[in-house]
Automatic annotation (TrEMBL):
SUPFAM superfamilies: Winged helix' DNA-binding domain. Residues 4-138 form the HTH marR-type domain. It comes from Gaoshiqia sediminis. The keyword DNA-binding applies. GO terms for molecular function: DNA binding; DNA-binding transcription factor activity. The lineage of its organism: Bacteria, Pseudomonadati, Bacteroidota, Bacteroidia, Marinilabiliales. Pfam families: MarR. Keywords: DNA-binding, Transcription, Transcription regulation. This is MarR family transcriptional regulator. InterPro entries: HTH_MarR-typ, MarR/SlyA-like, WH-like_DNA-bd_sf, WH_DNA-bd_sf. GO terms for biological process: response to stress.
């Protein structure tokens, strides 16, 4: 099967549209988060025992990029680093109440943006789209079932 435009171009342009729009919406709402920081908070919301290395692996980002984002989140007091219960050498990243509150605002804005961007697309088309995107991820070797999914039930938040 061939596409009219290269897959990378279509995916890249779509992600750029989404990234630019979500960054604008967050900025307009005076929420100090970029999309990468939003994804980190979303992931930490699902698990309270993740390290920087875990985040880099799950988000498929370079460790140095994750470090810069984590440092920014630490400065904003959206996350804290705490020693692991079992291995004191490890530092787990924990979402603070401030981080949790900010994340919830960002999630609400993200839902509104999704509704806006998906307007006029049928439920059937959306189901096909989601299945195709998941299949592309699987074909590329991404496995969301590696224990780090950010779409699990959130944990109780820490102060």
């Amino acid at each position: 099967m061939t596409l009219q435009k290269p897959l990378g171009y279509i995916l890249g342009q779509t992600m750029r549209v989404y990234r630019n729009r979500i960054n604008s919406v967050l900025k307009e709402s005076q929420i100090e988060l970029g999309i990468d920081q939003f994804l980190i908070l979303l992931t930490l919301n699902a698990r309270d025992d993740l390290t920087q290395q875990d985040l880099a692996h799950h988000l498929q980002k370079d460790k140095s990029i994750i470090l810069r984002q984590i440092n920014a989140l630490l400065e904003k007091r959206y996350v804290v680093r705490l020693p692991d219960k079992d291995d004191k050498r490890k530092k787990n990243l924990i979402l603070t109440q401030k981080g949790s509150d900010t994340l919830q605002q960002a999630i609400d804005l993200g839902k509104q943006l999704s509704e806006e961007l998906l307007a006029g697309i049928s439920t059937d088309d959306l189901a096909v789209f989601e299945n195709v995107m998941l299949k592309i991820q699987q074909n590329g070797g991404f496995n969301e079932d590696d224990g780090h999914s950010c779409f699990k039930q959130p944990n109780t938040q820490n102060e």
